[in-house]
Each structure stands twice: as C-alpha cells, then as structure tokens.
Request: fold
Amino acid sequence: MGVSSEDILGIFDLKTKDIEVDEWKKTLTIRELSLDDGMKMLSMIKGQDKAKATLTAHDIAQVIAWGVVDSNGERVFCDADVPRLAAKNRRPLMFIYSQITSLSGGDAEKN
Reply:
C-alpha cells in the first residue's frame, strides 16, 4: 500500500474563498498562494527591511493575478493582465490583495 507521486500531486490542496467586491458588484473566488507564488512574492521584497517593506502597484496586482481563480481553480488573470489590473481602483485591489494574503497565512514575511 504505497503512495505514488500522483496520489499527492493530483490533490488540489490550496484553500479557496468567495469574496464580495462591492465596488465591482462581483463575487470573486480567491485561493491561497502556492509555495511557488509565495516565494515569488517574498522575492519582491528581498533585500528590503521587512519592517518597512513596501510593494509596488505591479507587485500587488501580480499577487491578485496569482490568487483570483475561476470555478475550476484556474487563474482568471494572466501575467500580461497585470499592468491593466494595476491601473484599476486602489480600494478593491487592496481589499482583494489583503484577502489573498490573509488566506495564504498572513503578511508577505510570513508566507
């Protein structure tokens, strides 16, 4: 009774959550960041004093692009959408970003 790699790799184990984005009058599904995405997020602030770390609008939009998914768990936004996403209203984007990071275990430093 062994375990194969597919027994583990075939499991979708990222938490998801539906959130209401009032400004857009939309319900979005978000997912926690994968290890790969979380490490990419950490690299965005690498070399900075973590206590004073700031992310750019592009960085925040990138996290949103990684974390907003459709009903099949597939990303809604591709990397090419990030600049257009970063140009959207700050309030809903910061809300979505905070929801994704919270679902992923907290602040960037904790991922």
